[in-house]
Amino acid sequence: MNAVVEFSPEKAWQAAIANLEMDMSRAVFSTWVKPTHLVEFSDDTFVIGCMNSYGREWLENRLTTTLQRFLMGVMNRGVKVRFVVCDQEIDDGDDLTQEVDPDQEDSQDSPIELNIHYSSIRNYLIEPSRVVRLPVYYLRWLPYVGSQIIFLIMALWQEYYLASGGKARKGSCKVAVRAERICQWAGISRAQFFRLLQPGSSLGWFARKIDTDHEVDKRSGRAKKSSNKYELFESPLTPGDAEDLKTFLLAHGIQDSPQSALQLAINANPKDILHYPARLPQEEFDKMIPHYHTFQDVIRELIGHRLDGELGTLADQLADRLLGQGDFILVTWYFLRNWLPVLGTDAAMFVLVLRNLCYFNDETGEIRDAVWIEGGYQAIANRLGINNARVVANWLPAWIERGKRKDELSDRTVDEFSRRQRLQDLLALFVERIDHRINSEGSYSWKFKVQRIDPLTPQHQAIQQAVSSLLVKSESQGVQDELDFWIRNIGNDCSETVNIEPKVVLRLSDLTKDCSETLKGILNDCFATLDPEAKGCFETLLKILKSFKDFPKEKDTSSTQDTSILLNDPTSQSVAVVTDSSGNWSLDKLLARADKKNRQALLDQEKNALPFVSWIIHGASQPNIQNPYSLAIAKLKENPRIGAGGASERLAELQPRNLARLIEQSFTFYSPTDQNWRRLFAEVKRDRIRLLADALGLVLDFEEAPGWMSN
Question: What's this model's pTM, rounded to 2 decimal places?
Fold first, then answer.
């Protein structure tokens, strides 16, 4: 004997919602179904609350029969479904008259979606608000450890912050990060990364490896070696600054009066304590074992005991003053990901050092973007921790030609000159040497003009020019609306590639096959300016175009949608309500609004949905037919499996997404080029085309756009 599972009305409605969510695209479900709720169940009727009358009408026309059929099966008895607008038809007494506290409403768990509207194509590419913080004090470490270590420690901290996600700490501060991502931030290879992690490397001043233990593998149940673990040190003090601080405090009597000495140091000018721009390492520095040292450690060693109370507070204040806590160089993600790998760590750090010397005075409006570096190339090399000053000289064009080159050069020399020239050309986008002077000792000083904002890479500059030219030409030649529609409907996989020999060829012709000749020419001119073999070139161009196009309604771009329908088809969410999992017409879904008797009869007699669709198309094209949906049912009852024939039947044979696209085109810039469509709908008013969309159950993105009813 089988037990009968009884569902409460609430659970039955929840089951119905879950069933609809599986059958619909995420966008349609979220827009129409998710906001509904069960108001009451009485007299075998589910009363469903909607947000507004438009939503009620949509649900009544498309889902009443489907929901009633499902709920009858769940409840095991006959039930009805009625949709109401909550604030108009339901009276719950005083509850509806209570004022809602906006702050309380905002505190609910519903997420808030944020998007960025960029002011220019350049800013879209650079994303200037995405930055990584480089403590200014780390520049004092450059003579000791070099640029590569500084970029690496900055990358480690960046990954730590990203992995922690801004969440409050719960006991341990540990997070798990991937080596590949750290390498991307630091502009180094994986091999370089693990070489720098070896014991005894300069990274030991900023981090240390923790002994690896063992853990139980959740899959096999066996013991395994756990992941490599490292501890990051916060605010380490350079060895030279440690010596300078110790010398100053001893000279001012810290051992006799610690409070007085520390207060004096806090009030002193930092340059009276530390060497600037940085103290060079002593000769025996390379023999030192890297270890973590702080301002507090120096003071504790001089006093001879742990700091507490007032001494601890004074030590923290002195550390904040000398370390410049809160002073950061903001380095864009764009610089780290696009420029650091091509400039190299030393040249990239040279740019950041010069930028740190620039400033903006918000009182006077003065921008200082020209700076002097005293001491010539050797001073720059010392500041960056580079042993050979000629390395710096090779970054910049020769100021004075010192003789002629040999007429014949080896291949190796030619390659080296080419490499230097490329680096000089790239670095010139950031730094220009504009003046020099010679002091009394005969050493040079250089004046540099500094670009404070990141320039675009050559590839991104080409993309920016291509997009700008495309927009200008389309506007001047009167095809802006057509371009907007093309952008809106271009697929996400439009850069599909085919491998021919070792060369990758983009199938660009597929992108313009449905365009007018004018737009096709403009697009092809745009594509011709780009490098087809450049990684991500066309994807970036199309993302820019989509970002700068404002649509009446945002499309859902979640990866959880049905990819079998979404593939190369932005109109998929228009047709998902009436198609099967393969994207073809579903007769069962099309007949959801028919009465039970007619619905069952047509499902029994028809092999597919094409005749039904063809009669709806025919009815919509005839101004004297008021209800194409009823016409289709009547015609098929008279002549089973016989469609309307002609252009109507040929249109019905199109994929639903393609027919939806024709309908959308009719509401935008020009009549579709499809000959069958033109034969039926060239002279038809738009309200008949809208009637066709409704009869087919299509959800179109421009339904709420102003002016769609006009001819």
Answer: 0.63
